[in-house]
Amino acid sequence: MFEKSLKLVSCLLALGLVLVTVVPANDRPVTGLGHDVEHFVIFAVVGLAFGAAYVGRQRALLLSAILFALVLELCQLLLATRHARLEDFVVDAAAACLGIFTARVVRGLVVAQYR
């Protein structure tokens, strides 16, 4: 049950990223954090969620995270009020991958503690 909940949460977080990417720039939520910090935090959280939900699939998750970040940036080329930036792609992909790695490390520490 917990694993299914993690999978649902990770998918909902990814859907949320898609939504805030395609809405007009003026309708996008603003946190008050710097632009790169906003991107880094949310993509790291999404990566962490996917890393926790899909155990043992790190290679596929890492590739998917990079492709997801790329597709989100490329989608913005089609939107009048948005812009695609290489810097955003790099920050987003790196943060998502870091989140995935963090989930793996934490899981390894927890498993080692209970052996």
TrEMBL record:
Transmembrane domains' residue ranges: 40-56, 61-81, 93-112
This protein's UniProt keywords: Membrane, Transmembrane, Transmembrane helix
Stated name of the protein: VanZ family protein
Taxonomic source organism: Bradyrhizobium symbiodeficiens
Taxonomic path: Bacteria, Pseudomonadati, Pseudomonadota, Alphaproteobacteria, Hyphomicrobiales
